[in-house]
Every structure is written in C-alpha cells, then in structure tokens.
Amino acid sequence: xxxxxxxxxxxxxxxxxxxxxxxxxxxxxxxxxxxxxxxxxxxxxxxxxxxxxxxxxxxxxxxxxxxxxxxxxxxxxxxxxxxxxxxxxxxxxxxxxxxxxxxxxxxxxxxxxxxxxxxxxxxxxxxxxxxxxxxxxxxxxxxxxxxxxxxxxxxxxxxxxxxxxxxxxxxxxxxxxxxxxxxxxxxxxxxxxxxxxxxxxxxxxx
Length: 206
Known about the structure:
By secondary structure, the protein is α/β, with parallel strands linked by helices. Helices cover 51% and strands 18% of the residues. It has seven helices and seven strands, in the order H-H-E-E-H-E-H-E-E-E-H-H-E-H. It has helices at 4-42, 44-60, 106-123, 144-147, 170-179, 184-187, 192-205, and strands at 75-82, 89-98, 127-136, 151-152, 156-157, 161-164, 188-189. Strands 1-2-3-6-7 form a five-stranded mixed β-sheet, sandwiched between helices. Strands 4-5 form a two-stranded antiparallel sheet. The longest helix has 39 residues, at 4-42.
C-alpha cells in the first residue's frame, strides 16, 4: 500500500511543478506583451494615420434611412389560389398605380421586382400571375425584372408565369415583350381565369 507520507510528498511535488509552470507561462506572456508594446510604439505614426483616415472616412459617409415604399408609390397585393385538388398553388401579385415613363420608372420596376420576389420566396407557389390590370404603363425596361422573377438562367422557368393586362398597359407591355424577343401571345392574358387555365396547361406539359 502507498503510505500517507509518500502520497503527501508526491502531491507537494506536483503542486510545485504546477506553480513553476504557471510562473513560466506568465513570464512568457509578459515578454510577448512587452515586445508587442515596443512594436506598436515604433509604428505609432502609422497607427495614428490609419485611425485618422478611418475617422475621416466615417465622417464623410451619410446614413440615410430607406424603405421599399420609398422606391415607388405603386400599391400591391398578394392572393394565393389553389385548384380543387390543392396540388397546384398559384400566387397572384397585383399592382395598381402609374408606372413612370422610361428611366424615371426604374424605381417602380425595382419595387415591383422586390414585391414579386418576396411573394415567391414566402409562399413558394407552383405558378405565378402578375396582375397589371390596375397599372398604367407605356414604357420602361426595369419592369422586366419583375416579369423574370420566376426565371433562372441556368435552370430555366422554375415558376411558370403569366401576365394579366388591360387597355391601360397592354400596348406598352406588348412592345416591351417584343423588344425582349418574347412572344406576347405566350405571356399575356385578358383575365385571371385565362391565366389560370394557361398555367395549368403549362404545368401539365412539364
């Protein structure tokens, strides 16, 4: 058996080693800290210049609070539809208002794209209808970003899409699609019902 005296001696020896190790580590860290301070003191002008440059950069920057509504005054609404079997869900995104002419409408187009993309991301529909019957539109290319939300350059049409138009936007949207080498007859519908039927056909073909 190990005697109590031997056990106490071994414990004291272990404690002594532990203390020595701690002192060595402490001394090493102190030396490293001292060396780092010396290096920083030698490079003091460089550090001061970096801090001064960063301060001036921040001082020149402006912090402006922004909202999506600030891009455009257009109104929008979502509605989610499903067929009798509830196997196919279609998201309808409706826009109401006046799309500004040409490049002045870039904010309107970006806003529409953001809203369509948000709806598609939130509800993951099988098909998408962009309802423009309440939109006054004549010209402006940025609206294509909203129309192409369901398209992926590598994978093709992930979300089949149709556009419902009225006399207030039909001519402008038709010209835009033709300019983009898209067939308006494949895209444009006169009613929500027509858009549903054509999307169902497209989904069956897939």
